[in-house]
Amino acid sequence: MENNNQNCSEIATRIYDLDTEVYRCVGSSLGRTFTGDRDACIEDITRMLITNPRVYECRSQIALIGNMARTIKNKDDRRRLMTEYNEILNMIAEIPESFGSVDILNENMAALNTSNLRQKFSKDDHLIICIGRTHGSAGSDIGFALADKLKISYYDAEIFQQVLERMDMEQENIEDSNDYHNHAHEFDSKNPNKKPHGLVKFFKNFSKYHGLPVQDAIFFNQSDLICDMAKNEDFIVMGRCADVILTNKRIPHISIFITASFEQRVRRMMNVYHLDYKHAARMLRKLDHQHGHYYNFYTGRKWGNAVNYDLCINSASYGIDESVELIERMINQYPNR
């Protein structure tokens, strides 16, 4: 146990240092993932690696660092930092119960499967893979492993939230600076503590969300971000209704849905989160309901309906590694890729 904790601390230090170096090379506030005190950040990363459920938080943080590292223009710096990134992932893979280590494979079902899948892209289109999944089916593990194998960016809900928050902060800094110059003359000598641009701030925020509820505003901002990214890079996106968003914008992509039997998913959740059957089953039903409601509400389609996807995978039939290989096989059949 002590050796494992020491190993996690070493990995945490390397993750923090990698983030710092990526930030230096990218030269943008968007390149920094861990912004607090060095020792405090390393301690928190270590806890995420040791405490099993939080290791999934760590995956999103690491993926964000990797995404930014791939944007570094200097080839030598990019190669050096991506090598470090891959070494860190290999070290994490050796941690007991790290992400991806609790598989979903049902060996009896795996022996029965074959694949024969085709899809088309033009040579100018970016490779965009949209993955929907039921909780407990290892869909996030498959998406992350696939992104790493293809050397492309990985985006999930946590990463989108961080990117949008940082973009929002940068925009606010610019707008606040403009407000200062535009309203600096509005000084009230009778009330020197009055903030003349308070209403300006209110209407600015109202305008920013177009009067929408925050959840709707976040959805539409995420949608714009996904479409903008699709013009510039290859990536994998988990959920976020990305398949329908890109379809509506006529942007080529692959849509995949990953699931497994309820009983198989319950067993995996019991292993991952150390829950008894009752609590694991209750968690799955609740999360499936939330995912389905979100997707159905914003798309008008039915979440998990096979006709809405290019490929549906029963991950219990393949496991994590074989599911990644199956998707790779499909991608390799694209004539223009």
CATH superfamily of the largest domain: P-loop containing nucleotide triphosphate hydrolases
Q: Helix proportion of residues, in percent? A: 55-70%
Level-2 CATH architecture of the largest domain: 3-Layer(aba) Sandwich
Low-confidence stretches: 109-119, 177-203
Number of helices: 13
Number of domains: 2
The count of strands amounts to 5
State the secondary-structure class.
Answer: alpha/beta
CATH class of the largest domain: Alpha Beta
- How far do the termini sit from each other? 46 Å
Report the biggest beta sheet as strand number plus sense, adding barrel if it closes. Answer: 5 strands, parallel
User: What value does the Rg take, in angstroms?
Assistant: 22 Å
Net shape: globular
Mean pLDDT: 80
Question: Could you state the order of secondary-structure elements as H and E?
Answer: HHHHHEHEHHHEHEHHEH
Structure characterization notes:
The protein has 13 helices and 5 strands. It is of the alpha/beta class and 337 residues long. It has 2 domains: 1-99, no CATH class; 101-179 and 197-337, 3-Layer(aba) Sandwich (Rossmann fold). It has a 5-stranded parallel sheet. The longest helix is centred in the middle third of the chain and has 27 residues, at 157-183.
Summarize the structure.
This protein has helices at 2-26, 38-50, 55-69, 75-93, 107-110, 139-150, 157-183, 198-208, 214-230, 242-248, 262-273, 277-299, 319-332; strands spanning 128-133, 153-155, 235-238, 254-259, 311-314. It has 337 residues and is α/β, with parallel strands linked by helices.
